[in-house]
Amino acid sequence: MIEGSCCCGEVRFAVTAKPKIVGACYGSRCRKVGGTPFAMVAAETFTLEDGREHIVQYQPEPAFEFVRCFCGKCGTSLGEITSDEGMFPIPVNCFDQDLG
Fold it and tell me: What is the pLDDT of residue 89?
């Protein structure tokens, strides 16, 4: 199990398998949130353990469609951890342990 959290620790999550890929995106939206490397996590391996009430969502204007999540307390970018997709990105800086 690989655990993760925001900077203040209010939002905590875990994944039971290594991410499928780790990469970086420098498109217009990703640059605005820091252009940080991200890990693609399979939804069935992800568990939000604590802090759902602190997650703030940013819903972009069309043609963009993916909702970005942030900790409402410390502002840490959490990627798309509330996604309904089968796989979604989480910034690698949110993981508390080495991804291997």
Answer: 92
